[in-house]
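User
Take a look at the entry that follows and flag anything odd:
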Amino acid sequence: MADDYSQALARITPIHRGVSYGGNTLPAAQVPSSKEKAAIIVRLLLAEGASVPISSLPDHMQAALTEQIGQMRLIDRTTLAAVVEEFLTELEEVGLAFSGGIDAALAIMDGHISQTAANRLRRLAGASAKMDPWDRLTTLPAERLLPVVEAESIEVAAVMLSKLPVPKAAEILGKLPGERARRVAYAVSRTGAVDPETVRRIGLSLSAQLESQPARAFDAGPVERVGAILNVSTAATRDDVLQGLEAEDADFAEQVRKAIFTFNHIPARIAARDIPKIVRLVDQPTLVTAFATALTKPSTAPVVEFFLANMSQRLAQGVREEMAARGKVKEKDGEDAMSAIVTTVRQLEGAGELVMIREEE
């Protein structure tokens, strides 16, 4: 509806009626212009308490419309009725509305054009005098902006934080090293005298820098990817790979160890209140198989007790009875069942249903 209003306002054509300014009716030759008619419609809608999507128009059109409203005085009823009738006719004839702007077009075409083409269009739009680069920069996630804040000068970083929404600026500032965070925060206090054109030029430079970055083939980093693979690998494979990584790159191996989350880590990394969420998504035979295997090893037996102590007593009793009746379980079946539980935990974390406790905590 906002686009329909905007297009109808822009399309209404002159009508042959008089317009009264300060009580003086203009002759038919001096018919209202499109700006005057748009001002009449907006004034009428606002008087009726309607929500008019003026902010969806370009800034220069908003300014021109406001100036036009300030110049006008009285409008006779005949002129008002004719303008309203023409506006409604234009509104009814709108068959398809486009939001306008390259960002809106790219949102529509998302998934239908290549990332290279999309980045090129954004760069071209950013070079336009009518384009405000901060409109896009402020919508980018903090993860995309953080490397720029870390690499740019203190002054540029301060301008960026000043333009970003407060929650996002606070998130980025909290991820900076202490000394740099203090320097950037102090530099923000000195941005009051920066002129708008300089801010715009900084925005254009940052936008071009971000758009020129090559597309990432993987959403997660190498540490997270290796850790996710080892999470569902057998213990023997995991230990062997970690030993090999330590021989090749001890720092990378240490980071991977911190990223790994296995069945053994559940008591230390999962809150007791989240155990019912996990067991609801894992079928009982899988729980029985995993627990029966885990109880045979000192390193995993405490995990079973952690589960049984924090699930419903009725379910816990049923699992204990099935474990007693199950007998010995094949090692591979047991590891597959424990991996299924770990996968469920990761899925819940990804969906925001639970938050893992960090090692530092």
